[in-house]
Amino acid sequence: MKKIIALLILAAIVGYLLFWPVPIEPVAWNAPKAPALEGRYAINEALGSAERLGVDEGFGPEDVAIDSNGNLYVGYVDGRIVRFNPDGAEPDLIANTEGRPLGLDFDPAGNLIVADGYKGLLSIAPSGAITTLSTSLDGIDYGFTDDVDADSNGVLYFTDASSKYGPAMMARDDVMEHGGHGRLIRYDPAKGQAELLLDGLQFANGVALSQKEDFVLVNETGSYRILRYWLKGDKAGSHDVFFDNLPGIPDGVSANGDGTFWVAMFTRRNAMLDAMSDKPLLRKVAFRLPGFLQPQPEHHAFVMGLNEQGEVTHNLQATSKDSFAPITSVEQHGNTLYLGSLILPYFAAYSLDDHSEGASSP
To answer: Which ranges of the chain would DSSP assign to H, the alpha helix?
Structure first.
């Protein structure tokens, strides 16, 4: 009798793992072999000196924006937009989107532009008044408005990370499916119109314009790469791969205005996730497992610097248990990098004066 019961339990478990409905429909692809963390990607503890700011003011300061006076702005999981002075002190509530503010950037007029995961593309005036700029394109609502960068004329470049999976489901579902639900979009406030630049992206994440605004980068989290969309010149309207096969899972990307792109990586690559890339059924089975048995991100702080030719200029990491990780955004102001995180109860500042030769790639 005990054997029969055991067999029935085993059959139920196998049936659940193979047939229980799940929201994802995984697509087979071939993940490139992850680069070893050596040479230009060698593990170091450079980011171990990052200073925590805004401790316990709120959860999930995913991005940091800096105004002309050096004040720091972050958005929290409860919808609040909070301003801190340049030292990261004196928090002041600016507005509440009642959504999930993710990417932040200032336009030339001093408005804080917000990519809100639930509310779409928003503009917050210095008075705190919130204006909704765009919530859909071509009849498809934005499912996960993620990041934004404003050009010198106030034209906005932003991502709808996934039109299928919103912030409540997080990036994991979209990455596990690999269905290409992401979009890169341009919005012209003068015309009040949104325009599709790229679609079919694998979780379209961070966005950053080049120094001359002749191209814009977009991180494809689910494909471990960065795409470049040309805005000017003979290649205008076309796109190519700017950097392929990153050693980590990319999140935000920003430009420092002087030829350097900063790439925030949520964690290093996951061997189990890569091994399942061409096995859709196995990814469904993994999705049905308890969370602690699914592929998990390592606690690994990771930031890369790239020049406009796609060459690695900086390799900043930290692996200690108290290091600031995961990092979801990097913004440079002066000689300081401000680091955001999707889940931590603080953001951080890292001085490039602390940058050692050991943390720099050839």
So the answer is: 2-19, 170-177, 271-275, 280-288
Tokens of 74: 């972050």
Task: Provide DSSP, 147-194.
Answer: EEEE-TTS-EEEEE--SSS-TTTHHHHHHHHT---EEEEEEETTTTEE
**pLDDT category of residue 1 using cuts at 50, 70 and 90:** confident
Number of domains in the chain: 1
What's the first-to-final CA gap in the chain, in angstroms?
A: 67
For the domain that residue 345 is a member of, what is the CATH number? 2.120.10.30
Range of the domain at 276: 2-359
pTM (two decimals): 0.94
Q: What's the CA gap between 45 and 315, in Å, rounded?
A: 10
- Which tens digits make up the pLDDT trace of 111-128? 999 999 999 999 999 999
In 20-146, which residue ranges form alpha helices assigned H by DSSP? none
